[in-house]
Amino acid sequence: MSTKRTNGSIRNKPAAPAAAHDLQMIYWGAQANTPGQSWGPGVKDHHKLYFARSGKGSLTYRGQTYSVHSGQGFYAPPNEVYSYAADMDDPWNYNCIAFVGDQADLVLERTTLTAQPVFDQPAEMDNSWFARLAETSERPGGDLLQQATLYELLATLIRIAPATQQEPDARRPREEYVRQAADFIHRHYDEEVTIRQLSDYLGLDRKYVATLFREALGMPPQQYLLHYRMNKAKELLRSTALSVTETARSVGYKDALLFSRMFKKVVGVAPSHYVQQLVKL
C-alpha cells in the first residue's frame, strides 16, 4: 500500500496494481476539514463515496443542495459536476472510497443513490471498516481482499438503499434493452459476437437492435464492440507483457493483422507503436 498525506487528508492506494476488473478500487482515504473547506464545482473520472464521521457539511449536485451530517454519506458519480463544503461551525471529517469498473453503473442502478445521493450509513460501516482496508493491504493477496471489501460495501449499499420495484418498470424499455445488450458484449467481447447473437439474446429484430444502439449510444452495436475491445486491448498492453498476437486473441481476434488494423483505426497508432510509446513514458 502507498499512502500520501496532503492538507489534512490521507489517501491510500491498493497494495498492488491489478489488471482490469469489472469493479476496481483505486483509492480510499480520510479528510479532516477546516470550517468552510470545500471542493468544486468540478468533475472526477471515477465513482466516489463519502462517509461523514463527525460534524456536517453540504453537497451540491444537479442543481440541488443536500445537508449531510455525521452518520450519513453521499455518492458522487463520474463526469458530473458537483461540489461540497464543510460546515462553518461544525466542519465534517470524512472517509472516502473511489472506484471504477465496467459494472459500476449497473451495480449502482440497483440502489437509489443515482437519484438520491445522500444515504444513512449502516452501523457496520464505521472507522473499523476503513482500518480493515489498511490492515488487509499489508497481507499477501491484499489487493484481492480489498476487492472483496469493495464488493461487500456495494452489497451493503444495495441493502440499505435498494432501488424500488417501480424504478425498473419506469425505465424506458429500449434503454433496458441497450443495457442488456451492452452487458452481453462486456461478458463476451473475447468471443465471436454477432448482431444475430445480440438480437436472439434480446428477442428483438436485428435492425431494431441496431437502431436502439444508434439512438442511445450514437453508434451501431458492431462499433460499440470494436471500441470496447480496443479499450480492453489497451489495458492489456499497458498492464501485461502479452504480445500483440496474444492480446489480439484475448479480445476476440483470431487474426493478429486484422486486430492491428482495427487497433490503429480506433487508437490512431498500431499496437506495437502504442507499446513503444508506453515504454518512453
Word description of this protein:
It is a single chain. The chain is α+β, with helices and mostly antiparallel strands. It has 2 domains: 2-160, Sandwich (Jelly Rolls), CATH 2.60.120.280; 173-280, Arc Repressor Mutant, subunit A (Orthogonal Bundle), CATH 1.10.10.60. 44% of the residues lie in helices and 23% in strands. The protein has 11 helices and 11 strands. The strands form 2 sheets. The chain has a 7-stranded antiparallel β-sheet, covered by helices on one side. The protein has a 4-stranded antiparallel β-sheet with strand order 4-9-6-7, with no helix packed on it. Strand 1 and strand 2 form a beta hairpin. Helix 5 (173-188) packs across helix 7 (206-217), helix 5 (173-188) crosses helix 8 (221-239) and helix 8 packs across helix 10 (256-267). The radius of gyration is 21 Å and the shape is globular. The protein starts with a strand and ends with a helix.
Brief overview, please?
The protein has 281 residues and is an alpha+beta fold. It has helices at residues 104-108, 127-136, 142-160, 166-170, 173-188, 195-202, 206-217, 221-239, 244-250, 256-267, 271-280, and strands spanning 2-6, 9-13, 24-32, 38-42, 47-54, 56-61, 64-69, 72-76, 82-86, 93-100, 118-120.
Structural class: alpha+beta
Strand content: 15-25%
Which residues sit in consecutive blocks of at least 5 with pLDDT less than 50? 1-7, 15-20, 166-172
CATH fourth-tier homologous superfamily of the largest domain: Regulatory protein AraC
CATH C-level of the largest domain: Mainly Beta
Rounded to an integer, what's the Rg over CA atoms? 21 Å
Whole-number tally of structural domains = 2
Q: Give the second-level CATH assignment, the architecture of the largest domain.
A: Sandwich
Count up the helices.
11
Q: Describe the sheet with the most strands.
A: 7 strands, antiparallel
Q: In which range does the helix fraction lie?
A: 40-55%
